[in-house]
Amino acid sequence: MTVSPSAVARVEAAPRPIRLRLTLTLLGYGAIALLACLVAPLVGSTPISLSRAFDRSIPFADNVDAQIFFLARMPRVAASALVGGGLAATGVVMQALLRNPLADPFTLGISGGAAVGAMLAIVFATGASLGPLTPVPLASLVGAFVVGVIVYALGTRPRRPMSTAVLLLAGVTLNAFCWAVIMFLQYLVDFAEVYRTVRWLMGDLDIGGFGPVVGVLPLMVVAFALFAALPSSLNLLSVGADIAATRGVDVARTQRLAFVSAALATSAAVALAGPIGFIGIVVPHLVRLMTGVDHRVVLPASALFGAAFLVGCDLVARTILAPVEVPVGIVTAMIGGPFFLWLLVRKA
Amino acid sequence: MFLQLQQISFSYDPGEAGLPSQGFSLRDVSLAVGRGSLAGLLGPNGCGKTTLLKLMAGVLRPQQGTIFFDGRAAAGIPRRELARHIAVVPQETHPAFDYSVLEMVLMGRHPHLGAFRLEGPDDLAIAYDALAATGTAHLARRSYMSLSGGEKQRVIIASALAQQPDVLLLDEPTASLDLAYQLEVAVLLARLNRERGVTIVLATHDLNLAASLCHVLVLVREGRVLAQGATAHVLNGGMIRELYDVDADVRFHERSGHLTVVPIGRAR
Fold first, then answer.
1. Integer CA distances (angstroms), B68 to A39, A254, A276, B5, B71, in order
2. What whole-number distance in Å separates Cα of residue A8 and Cα of residue B28?
């Protein structure tokens, strides 16, 4: 993803009032996200004609272009935007909650729980489904919730601020535990199933219709509604819990809201597309380089840029080795990994 | 009395049913700070000075006793409302992200704005006024993390001033500063107190700072109040021996116009 030079120049100019900065940011990043979502469905391994796709005179069953456009690409772009936006915004929230720029949506171990759930559904071929949610997404949601509840119970104490150290350690430990369970399951089952599980872990946006998107949408909507209440409190929380409290922030409540919203968005994203790494850490840092660190700007900008970023990465994944498809998690990690190292080196 | 603590007991590790399990950090502390006064909290390391400040700020709640702010029980005042009256300057502030000085100061407007309102021209004017009052206006666009210790401390004081508080609580405001900055912060606090009528309570280990700046002193040892009163009455050799187990000469210094404390050696 390239960034317009004017966005970079904006940082060096005089500090603008927050209202103007927020408006410019939302317009700028909104335009990038919109552009990505409009261009991505047009491009793919099979060239399609847009006029033919929208031609009502051809029956849908015979209109291959329309089928590719509406059944393969549109749901895929919608899922990419939702997952990318959700993971990037969650990264911002996690980094502020844990006061740690290296935190990401998977730090709390929720993705590990989701992965165990998905593995179990694949290995035991459960048939349980819920509305538009097919067995694997449903099981991964359940796994994510179980881990989320455990970490929450460990990290919170009645009427007191959360212990971020306990949250971090519990998350890391549960992630390790979940990976042990995953490897144990892979050791037990046959090769075909191991391949399916590994493929799931690489992240996959080929969801074949709008059903799964609709299934996790309510979780994302709740998560984003909670995100909206957080930014100014996150600013203070990232300065320090005590100073936040004396500036009028209800620290315990903010931390709980942040945890719950982050857990919901992560669960929804992982259930939809598997654990796609690096977005939650790379996108917020990239956005901070362009907009400064105020969470009231960084959070919405990261959500929009995260959406554009994953739509773009998925486009690369679909086309770079066409007709073979590269798992999108590999693309985000291959772009995100070196970029993140560069960030670290630059900081040191 | 403006800020009043009535028989406060506090433990970081409360046992069953609020009864003490491991003993109190503070026990039966009663103290009062008048409106417009400049009070110093003195005592050895770990005596409970910081805990006292956190209780006054409403960050911690006492297990026993009541804290009154302007005649109202502080426990009944919502956090945001309390933050419009009482601001705190911690010993050190380490933001996780690279905020600008202006952003740090504008965060002081949070209790007036809440979660959803964005700051407007009035808030900016208040922030710039706070920057000017602390002599940091020229730093507004700098990164907070790039500042020196003294500059950081003054910016955090500016951020507290942006809350437009009646009371300013400071935890060892000069602890990590060199002599020039110590003096600068002391002059700033005296001016805020005198010109803006801000009530100030500061915890410090610097007895000479306390002697030059504070109208009243509260001496705390092992979680109890040893003595409190006008600086001239409380600050003497006997009290310092009781407080720190140190022999010290306390004399009036002609040129500076206040008492000075010179430690001589450990008592006994």
1. 63, 26, 53, 6, 5
2. 58
N-terminal to C-terminal alpha carbon distance within chain A:
25
Are B235 and B250 a contacting pair, CB within 8 Å?
yes
pLDDT in tens, B33-60: 999 999 999 999 888 899 999 999 998 8
ipTM metric = 0.89
Distance CA B18, CA A244 (A): 27
CB nearest to B103's CB, from A99, A240, A294: A294
Domain boundaries, chain B: 92-164
Positive or negative: CA dihedral B156, B157, B161, B166: positive
Adjacent-strand bridge partners of B3:
B33, B69
Q: Which domains does chain A have, with CATH numbers?
A: 5-347 (1.10.3470.10)
> Which DSSP category does B109 fall into?
G
pLDDT recorded at residue B23:
64
**CB atoms near residue B149 (< 10 Å):** 13
Closest partner CB to B107 (pick from A96, A229, A235): A235
Contact indicator for A93, A269 with CB cutoff of 8 Å = no
More confident residue, A339 or B94: B94
CA–CA distances in Å: residue A53 to residues A37, A47, A235, A239, B204? 17, 11, 47, 52, 75
Distance from CA of B86 to the nearest CA of A (A): 8
**Quick check: A248 and B79 CB within 8 A?**
yes
CA B89 to chain centre: 6
CA distance from start to end of chain B: 39
Identify the pLDDT of residue A9.
38
Check if the beta carbon of residue B216 is closer than 8 Å to that of residue B205. Answer: no
Tell me whether residues B141 and A15 touch, CB distance under 8 A: yes
Q: Note the pLDDT of residue A118.
A: 87
pLDDT digits (tens, 9 = 90+) for B151-163: 999 999 999 999 9
Q: What is the mean pLDDT of residues A41-61?
A: 82
